[in-house]
């Protein structure tokens, strides 16, 4: 039950019933039993009421009609979170369509959000990436990029483990997020969310736009990049990126 509904129910309690609850009963045991019930009910109600209050709410512009966007804990991400549909693209198209920036950096922070589209809830994650090298795009070394991504939940929650699910705070990688402008709008259940309201960049999907240096080695969607099939370190990917974008200048 959400806190608005709880407040509505609390508002419907008649003062007469409140006064009755204050009358001293002749049977102490029943009074104690009733009092304990009230305490438990109030405690349960308080927990329900505060579950969203303590979650930071991200302010939205007038271009967004979604009910709300809240920062939530990883444990609150629900199963069945929608994933981006993978559009068929060649290796060259991955670099050219939407003109992604290409940077090397470290994941400094991961926050999780719940988006309410008029009762339909969607879960996403916001990555803060500290940029250490820039291969392509209007980005500066040392800049922090806030990037929207598919929800990064616990491994046991995921229906299938994609590349983005392996991202962890402190992890280094090469990232290819696309810059958002006012034209990037998420429409669902009759409501809209201007993506720039929550992040300046985003991954078009959770598979093909990041190369991660994980404890188990280099991880990326190899089938999407025929030119990189045999590479096994982030340094090799970096040298290839430098060569590619120098050639295109």
Automatic annotation (TrEMBL):
Domain of life: Bacteria
Membrane-crossing residue ranges in chain numbering: 34-54
Keywords attached to this entry: Membrane, Transmembrane, Transmembrane helix
Listed name of the protein: DUF4179 domain-containing protein
Natural source organism: Exiguobacterium aestuarii
């Amino acid at each position: 039950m959400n806190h608005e509904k709880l407040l509505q129910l609390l508002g419907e309690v008649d003062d007469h019933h409140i006064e009755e609850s204050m009358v001293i009963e002749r049977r102490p045991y029943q009074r104690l039993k009733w009092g304990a019930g009230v305490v438990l009910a109030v405690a349960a109600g308080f927990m329900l009421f505060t579950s969203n209050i303590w979650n930071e709410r991200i302010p939205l512009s007038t271009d967004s009609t979604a009910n709300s966007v809240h920062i939530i804990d990883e444990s609150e991400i629900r199963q069945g979170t929608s994933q981006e549909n993978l559009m068929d693209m060649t290796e060259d198209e991955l670099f050219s369509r939407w003109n992604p920036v290409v940077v090397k950096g470290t994941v400094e922070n991961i926050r999780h959000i719940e988006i309410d589209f008029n009762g339909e809830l969607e879960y996403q994650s916001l990555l803060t990436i500290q940029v250490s090298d820039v291969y392509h795009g209007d980005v500066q070394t040392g800049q922090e990029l806030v990037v929207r991504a598919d929800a990064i939940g616990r491994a046991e929650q995921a229906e299938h483990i994609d590349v983005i699910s392996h991202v962890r705070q402190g992890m280094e990688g090469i990232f290819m997020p696309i810059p958002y402008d006012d034209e990037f709008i998420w429409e669902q259940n009759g409501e809209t969310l201007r993506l720039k309201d929550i992040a300046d960049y985003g991954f078009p999907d959770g598979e093909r736009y990041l190369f991660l240096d994980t404890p188990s080695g280099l991880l990326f969607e190899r089938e999407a990049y025929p030119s990189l099939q045999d590479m096994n370190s982030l340094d090799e990917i970096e040298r290839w990126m430098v060569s590619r974008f120098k050639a295109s200048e």
